[in-house]
Every structure is written in structure tokens, then in C-alpha cells.
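Progress report, Aim 2. The chain analyzed during this reporting quarter is listed below.
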Amino acid sequence: MKLLLFLIIYQCTINSFKTQSASNPNIILLMADDLGIGDLGCYGNRTLRTPNIDRLAEEGVTLTQHIAASPLCTPSRAAFLTGRYPIRSGMAAFSRVGVFLFSASSGGLPSEEITFSKLLKKRGYATALIGKWHLGMNCESNNDFCHHPLSHGFDYFYGLPVTNLRDCRPGQGSVFLKGVQKSLVIPIQIAGITLVCLAIVQYIGLLKVPFQALGYCLVITALSLAGLIFFFYHFRHLNCFLMRDHQIIQQPLSYDNLTQRLTKEAVQFIGRNTDAPFLLVLSYLHVHTALYASKTFKGKSKHGLYGDAVEEMDWSVGIKGLFATVMHLLLNEAAKIGQVLDVLEKYELSDKTLVYFTSDQGAHVEEISSSGEVHGGYNGIYKGGKSTNWEGGIRVPGLLRWPGVLQAGVSIDEPTSNMDIFPTIVKLAKAQLPSGRILDGHDLMPLLQGKVARSKHEFLFHYCNAYLNAVRWHPGNSESVWKVFFFTPNFSPEDSNGCYDSHVCFCHEGFITWHHPPLLFDLSRDPEEKVPLTPETESRFYEVLRVIELAVDNHTRSLDAVPDQLSWNNLIWKPWLQLCCSSVSESCYCDYDSEGHLLEGHSG
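Predicted C-alpha cells for the chain:
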């Protein structure tokens, strides 16, 4: 009788623990940058060593049709944080440049947008973003921090406010000058100076004094050009720096042991929050260029510096597997730190923690170094890459592990989106989904746990910047996944220069080709998007187009006019918004994050 009573109490305790762990779990969201779906062993790669990321697949669920909401960093990350298409928040560009390039731009994720970090923070979660942000910084002054991570629900921030560019690392060339000079600097230089001159002439009444007006314009032009030259010369110092919360701690950024530093910050955050629920977004700089790897990993992979960077990121995720164990022994300092999955086991948090791994978009297949080395990744069988809505640009890794809640080794081939993370974790935290706004993501848990067999995404809309580029339709009574393209980039996979040697593919004018009728593919039969269907080869051709046209009309009517955060005015460098940890005369230099000058870990 006593034994029976003990077993009943024991079982109730176990059930209580499972209920508790499933109600307010810890959340760890790992996001790579420009990682190809074909770069990971769990998605078929046989030459790169990724045992720790593969472990997430072995012990959890693998999504094989996981879609980024945009093929570019800024809009994709905005959608990820808000659960909404970036067009809804003004984070999709009508201009040629689709991402923020400067720390001193005025655009960014609007304060009225609701992020999952805001909602989880209200539920008592400790929240941290470590790594790349790329969603804006200031609005009107260099200390209002209106777009800063701490203004969007994160308690703690350690990382880069913008992104990792070749310009940030000496000797890696200049993406800025190569891909943006013609599209950004010259129009701004001409239009901006002309507008200013006209305004001055009109204001001070110099229309009747043409030589004086011309003199003013020449002075303004000279000052503007001097400002541009200053900016180009000091680009690395002005744009590539590391922050802790609102403070710059390293300017310019040093790549020495950078992944180890990010990992250390992540592990310390977990260690500070073992007794309360936490949300950690670890947003890796790998494998966006400029590529880098620490001495221990450099030259160790079969795919040059790109492969070294992938394997170093895998080390950061965990420390399992033979190769990772050897790396652990070699990296003495890192060995003292421990890695993300390890620290969960150390504090017995694995069963209480949902871990998610993804990439913000597909691999940047056009990336070639100045020496001719391929610095872009591998998208497997899928066509295209970053900046395109071919499958290679938007189909990304989607791995979720939660021992005891999600079954291990499951693979799901249903359309899902990075926007789905928002409602999924908000519901898990028992927070209230925001009302009065459209959410485009859906709760993944029923699908992940096998309670339903079909994704709630009947349609997914694929934007190239602010332009509706393609639509995906997964009918409820069919295995087909139809995809139509209204236009496609003038992209040649065989040409390493890709889209007009412009670094990324653009979305309008002479850079694209419109299709009448639209191109149609069935991804269930042709995932490589090799052969467009025609009325002769597909009997449902016009029926599919009619259904998708109706869906586009409904979707378009759901869009509200919002301020364009990526307008030219919001994109340009504004000197008064520039962050600098020292005086400009000292070239904005400081270093509080290198060995011997390490700041103490945040205590909050």
C-alpha cells in the first residue's frame, strides 16, 4: 500500500514538473547570418562538420520547408521579431537599398511595433539579445536610442548595432563602395546638395543675385563632399563597433575571439537566470562577410574560411561530438566558459528550454573575395541565394529541440515561417497575443507535437524589398506546393558576379524581368525550380493563377500605409546621429572588451 501511494505521489510530481516546464519554458533562439540550408549535416552536407547543430535535429524537430519572410537581413529580422511581414512595419524598402548600412541612420523598427521580447518581458522573463541587431539605433539625436534593442523589450544587449561588413575588417575589400556607391552616394550627393541650395536661395532671396547664389551652392557642395570623404575614410571607426547596452565598448570592432566573446556573454546570461524564465536571442555574426575565425578553427575545414566560420559557430552551439571535443580541449579559455547546450545540461535546464536554430536568409552565393575565394555558402539543391526569392534565398534551417515535449528525430515537410516563432513562444509564455493588428505567423506547437498534420500557412507571400515578388500556395486538399513568380531578378547562377556585379540582386527597373503570365512551379515535384509549368504541361495552370490572384487581392487589402523606415532620408548617414566613444578628433577609438580590458559581466 505504501509503495502504491509512493508511486502515485511520484507520478503526480513528474506530471506537475512536465506541466510547469511546458507552461513557462526558457527560450533560446539561435540565428545564423547568411547560412545556407545545405551547409549543415542534418540537411545533407557531408563535408562540413556541424555535430552540435545536427544534435538539435537528432533530439528535436527538423523543418524542411522553413521560410524566411525576406531574403535580406533587416526585413527578415523585423518579421522574425514581430511575427508580421516587414511591409506592415515599414521595414521593406521601396528604394534600391533594402537594409540599413550605417549606425547613424534614422530609420529602424518602429517603437509602436510589438516584439516577442516586449511581451515575454511583461511576463517576467529576463531577456537578452547577443550579437547582430541591424534594426536601427537612433531617431533624432545620438542618444535617444528609439530603435535600440533595449527599447524593444530586451533587458540586455551585447553586440553590433548594424551588421558585419567587409569594410569592417581591413584587407577584406569594400562592399559599401562596390555595391552601393552608384545607388546611394551619387544620388544623395546630387539631389541633396541641389535641394539644399535651392532652399537657401529661395529662403534668403538670392534669385536676383545669381552669382551669390552660385557661391553658396559651391560652398555647400564642397562641404558635402568633404563630409563624404571624411565618412569613407573613417567608415570602419564610425560604423563597426561593439556595444553593451547603450555603451560602446569597442570601436572599431576587433574580430579577435569574437565568437568566443559572444558565446561567453550568452553562457553568462543563462547562468544569471537559472531560477527564472529567460529569453535569449543569440544572433551570430557568422557567416556574413567579412568572414573570420579564431586561430583554433582557421584552416581546419574543407571549405576555406567560410567552412572554418561554420564550424566555429557549431562549436558555440554545443560541445558534443569528437571534433567539437578536440576543439574544446584546444580552446582553453573557451573551455572555461562552456557552450550553450552544455550550460543547459550543467544547470539541468534542458527539459525546461525550447531551443530554436535558423538563419535569417539563405547563403549569399555571389560572395567572392578579392583573391577569388568563395565566401558564400551552399543552398543545397535550391536555386539562387540571398536577396532572391528563389528557394535558395528563403528556405532556411528550422530546428527545434525541447526534450520531453517535442519528439526526437521528427522531420516535417510543411510550409512554415520564421514569423511563426512570435506566436509560438508568446503562447508558451502565457502572454497575450496583441490585438488590433494582423499577425502573419502561426503557433507551431500543434504541428511540432503531431497534433495536426498540416501547416496553417495556406499562402505565403514573398517580398523583394517592398515589392510582392512571388506567392506560395499549399492547398488543404493537395500535396502540391504551388509557387508563382510575378517577376524574377536578372540573375545568372553560372556568373559569380550574379546581378550586374552589384553584390546583391535588386528588385525593380532594369534589374528584373516581369512575367506575363507569371512563372508557375510545383515545389512538391520541382523543388529546384528548374522547369516552369505551362498551360500545356499543367491542366490546373489558370485555376492556380486565379486562386493566387484572389489571395493577393485579399492580402493587399490587409496592408495599411505606414512610414517607410528604409526611405532615402532614413537610410543616409546623419552626422548628428553618429555614436562615438571618444572625440571625433581621436578617431572614435576605445577598447574595453579585449583581454586585459574586459568589462565585468552585466549583473542584471
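The CA atoms of residues 181 and 187 lie 9 Å apart. The longest strand covers residues 512-522. These observations will guide the mutagenesis work planned for the next reporting period.
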